[in-house]
Amino acid sequence: MVDRAITRLTSLAISSARFSYFAAGYSLACWYSQVPAVRERLGLNDLELGCALTIAPLTTLISTFLYGRLSSDAHKGRRLSISLVLLSTFVLGIGLADSKPWLFISLVLLGISNCAVQIESNSRAHLVEDVSRKSFSLSCHGFYSVGVAVAGVLATIIPGNNAGPPMLLFSPGLVVLVGLGIFRIQPIQEAASREAAEASWSERTVRLSRGLPIVLLPGLGMVLLALESTVNGWHSALALENDPGADWPGIIFAAYGTGSLLIRFTGDFVRRKYGLLTTFVVMFPVSFSCFAIYLMTHSVLVLVVFFFLLGVALGIAYPDALRLASLREGSGSNREISTVIKFGTLGVVLSNPAIGLTSEFIGVGGAFLVLNIVALVAAGPVAVKLVSSAKEMAFGTRRESAGRINR
Length: 407
Fold this sequence. Notes:
This protein has 15 helices and no strands. The chain has 407 residues and is mostly helical. The chain folds into two domains: 2-187, MFS general substrate transporter like domains (Growth Hormone, Chain: A, Up-down Bundle), CATH 1.20.1250; 201-406, MFS general substrate transporter like domains (Growth Hormone, Chain: A, Up-down Bundle), CATH 1.20.1250. The chain is globular.
């Protein structure tokens, strides 16, 4: 009976972690899907729209500088529940905004709540994974993508209402309240969670988390999210650069999303078998080679393959960086994770203006190439450390075997 109760609690904790990701992705995607309707209803010009789209990520970035230091170990489950409720509430606030100041204030509050949701949901998923000894946290990121996809589908079904609040922006609050009622986010005993984490991961992964330079994970997070943001915002421009009349942008983005979802729902097995960041270290050079072929041939089919491979390479890279950060820090601490999120958000904020400025001189393809080279350089130290950790383990195993033989 006790084992059955523990299994039930573990299953509920895993389901609640997955729900938190789904709710976050759904809430944010509802807002982004309704940007044109909000713009038309409030009469935003291009400059005001640019400011509106920058406010939330910039506020999230600023919030991460403080959140990891101000948050304590107490009431972590309650903080995640409250953050999800606030996130959906501020999405509704955007929908109800009847003036530009109200919209901008709602976006500031949305950015703050998004910061809290990111840090708390990632920390909780890693903690549940450590305590339960079950690999599932990457599927949480898959559920985030599912939330985005569901919001996108509903945005095409639910009719727009330019004269009043977009109806879709009322739904995140309902989803969150129903979900919290079903998947109750219960507190988890965090004592010895660090020991549980290290015991549940291979020695190679623990060596990697301790051996990476302290600045590498935040820098890698910044590059990874900058690349993801560039794909989201500039894939159409890249596809149309050499063939303006083509209908490829949707297919290209679908290929990227397919690759990302594929690895996110299989990545828990992959990362357990081969280690954290191994997929990125192996697949990103392959996708980079494919992009180099595209630049030489300008074949759109090659570009589709590149985006699929890039989706596989990036699909779990950022979650892996967050997981390594959680292994580096003590029980219950959020500082390492919030630092990686902070620099990742900085990459999102800087990526679009940087790509726009660079493309003025060398084109969108050249700007993509520069960013891919930066990411390839960032993968180098990780690859070196992965190989050295494997060699250290192999040497240690041989020495232990030799010792047993001598005895």
